[in-house]
């Protein structure tokens, strides 16, 4: 689901709701079918049918997901419909197994409770084992399609085995033949052709990582969100303009020596900090170790020395770190929203405590200044203003694209120092640009995009650890 719809709360809610609804329907249907046909062969048919529905999910998923995405049903209905189509039918049939097994095992009413309790205990234990094995072991060893094909194959084999145990040789032989045909479909079809320019594709416990070369630019994509770009012919050229704006904190803390960045992506920003400011030591915290490996291998992010890459949750690192920083940069994204625990008043207070006097915090926010898509930006702005006395707003490419309702990157810069005026910022940008080691192209443009208009905050909440509806606000 994630490469198409992300892994937002709507996706998780759709998955959980679909499986619970399917199991509920399967429990009711399984009980009725078992009462009418209380035979081992009927139970074998249920298991086999479940396998026949589970096995082809990876083959059907691309077409279903593309069709639902093309229908543009929205961030809530889209994943819900896709889940119902892909996982609803097999979920219903798998739900039939438990009541069917109870009906077959219970010999009389006196033992019904014990049989039902024992079977549901075994079922729940299997769910626990499946959850832990999937999270801690299986997803590290095999791809998602291989896992789902494996689950379907096991169910098909169980159906055949039950028929054989019941001495239904004809049924078992027919089922085995049908299973062989179904299992052979992926081999006949062969692997899907790789997208043009594909350099790397990897599923991790957090993302699907995709690296592609397109038109001389190398792109990093996490799930369905573009993260970074690298010009292969000119690696120092900025591909995504917002990356230059992430250097604005240097103007507010010109003598900075220690920098913390939360969120790595392809490493465009920390790599440029490392190269342009030889007096700085940069710590980068990235939750997914695989992203760190990809950034080093495919995007030439330096390793060691003044640039440390740490695999850890950003908030945990800030909470546990004993370091004090001059600049903290926040650029951690899940699709188009910030992980909520990196946008709350409590987190910003924690980050301010890790800043030296006069330190600066900068956060990249995707949103609009006004209109229906402005909620997240305005809530983050209001929350930052509760923690820092001075907050600046720099809409990326505002001078070229001054539409308040337009979706864009917006860089928020917060500090405890008094506010600087536009002239002061231009002077600092000119001095910084004169440094022969600094090659950032967008100093003047970024400073010129300082936004001084009104920002409405009365209709958005202060984000807290108890209430931070970031995914709702962004839409």
Tell me about this structure.
With about 475 residues, the protein is α/β, with parallel strands linked by helices. The protein contains 19 helices and 11 strands. The protein has a 7-stranded mixed sheet, with helices on both faces. Strands 1-2-3-4 form a 4-stranded antiparallel sheet, with helices on one face. It is elongated and about 90 Å long. The mean pLDDT is about 90.
Layout of strands and helices, then pairs:
Blueprint: H1 2-5, H2 9-36, H3 40-54, H4 57-71, H5 77-95, H6 97-105, H7 112-141, H8 144-165, H9 169-189, E1 198-203, E2 208-214, E3 217-222, E4 225-231, H10 242-245, H11 249-252, E5 258-262, H12 268-276, E6 281-286, H13 289-299, E7 307-311, H14 314-320, E8 325-330, H15 345-353, E9 355-367, H16 375-387, E10 390-395, E11 408-415, H17 422-434, H18 443-448, H19 470-473
Parallel strand pairs: 5-6, 5-8, 6-7, 8-9
Antiparallel strand pairs: 1-2, 2-3, 3-4, 9-11, 10-11
Helix pairs in contact: 2-5, 2-6, 3-5, 3-6, 3-8, 4-5, 6-7, 8-9, 15-16
Q: How are the strands of the biggest sheet laid out side by side?
A: 7-6-5-8-9-11-10
Distance between the termini: 20 Å
- Kindly report the average pLDDT value: 89
Portion of residues in helices?
40-55%
User: Total helix count?
Assistant: 19
Radius of gyration: 27 Å
Assign the structural class, choosing from mainly alpha, mainly beta, alpha/beta, alpha+beta, or little secondary structure: alpha/beta
**What fraction of the residues are assigned to beta strands by DSSP?**
15-25%
Shape: elongated
Q: Secondary-structure element order, as H and E? A: HHHHHHHHHEEEEHHEHEHEHEHEHEEHHH
Report the sheet with the most strands, covering strand number, pairing sense and barrel closure.
7 strands, mixed
Low-pLDDT sequence parts: none
Number of E-state strands = 11
Classify the oligomer. Answer: single chain
């Amino acid at each position: 689901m994630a490469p198409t719809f992300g892994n937002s709360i709507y996706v998780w809610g759709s998955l959980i709701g679909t499986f619970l609804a399917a199991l509920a329907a399967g429990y009711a249907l399984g009980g009725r079918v078992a009462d009418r046909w209380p035979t081992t062969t009927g139970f074998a048919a249920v298991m086999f049918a479940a396998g026949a529905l589970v096995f082809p999910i990876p083959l059907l998923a691309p077409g279903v997901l593309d069709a639902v995405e093309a229908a543009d049903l929205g961030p809530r209905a889209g994943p819900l419909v896709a889940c119902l189509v892909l996982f609803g039918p097999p979920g219903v049939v798998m739900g039939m197994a438990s009541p069917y097994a109870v009906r077959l095992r219970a010999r009389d009413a006196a033992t019904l409770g014990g049989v039902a309790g024992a079977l549901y205990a075994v079922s729940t234990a299997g769910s626990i084992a499946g959850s832990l094995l999937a999270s801690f072991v299986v997803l590290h060893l095999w791809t998602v399609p291989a896992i789902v094909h494996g689950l379907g194959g096991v169910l098909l084999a169980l159906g055949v085995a039950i028929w054989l145990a019941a001495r239904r040789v004809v049924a078992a032989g027919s089922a085995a033949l049908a299973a062989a045909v179904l299992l052979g479909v992926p081999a006949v079809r062969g692997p899907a052709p790789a997208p043009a320019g594909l350099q790397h594709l990897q599923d991790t416990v957090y993302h699907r990582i995709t690296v592609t070369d397109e038109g001389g630019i190398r792109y990093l994509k996490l799930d369905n969100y573009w993260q970074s770009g690298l010009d292969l012919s000119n690696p120092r050229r900025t591909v995504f303009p917002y990356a230059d704006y992430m250097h604005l904190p240097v103007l507010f803390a010109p003598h900075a020596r220690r920098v913390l960045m939360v969120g790595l992506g392809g490493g465009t920003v920390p790599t440029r900090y490392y190269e342009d400011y030889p007096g700085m030591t940069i710590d980068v915290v990235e939750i997914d170790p695989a992203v760190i490996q990809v950034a080093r291998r495919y995007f030439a992010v330096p390793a060691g020395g003044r640039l440390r890459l740490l695999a850890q949750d950003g908030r945990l690192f800030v909470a546990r770190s004993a370091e004090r920083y001059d600049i903290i940069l926040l650029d951690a994204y899940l699709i188009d929203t910030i992980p909520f625990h990196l946008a709350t008043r409590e987190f910003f207070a924690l980050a301010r405590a890790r800043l030296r006097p006069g330190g600066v915090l900068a956060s990249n926010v995707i949103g609009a200044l006004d209109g229906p898509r402005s909620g997240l930006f305005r809530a983050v702005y209001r929350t930052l203003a509760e923690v820092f006395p001075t907050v600046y707003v720099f809409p990326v490419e505002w001078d070229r694209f001054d539409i308040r309702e337009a979706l864009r990157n917006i860089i928020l810069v917060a500090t405890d120092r008094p506010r600087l005026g536009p002239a002061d910022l231009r002077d600092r940008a000119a001095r910084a640009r004169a440094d022969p080691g600094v090659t950032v192209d967008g100093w003047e443009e970024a400073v010129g995009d300082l936004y001084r208009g009104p920002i409405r905050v009365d209709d958005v909440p202060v984000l807290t650890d108890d209430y931070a509806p970031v995914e709702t606000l962004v839409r």
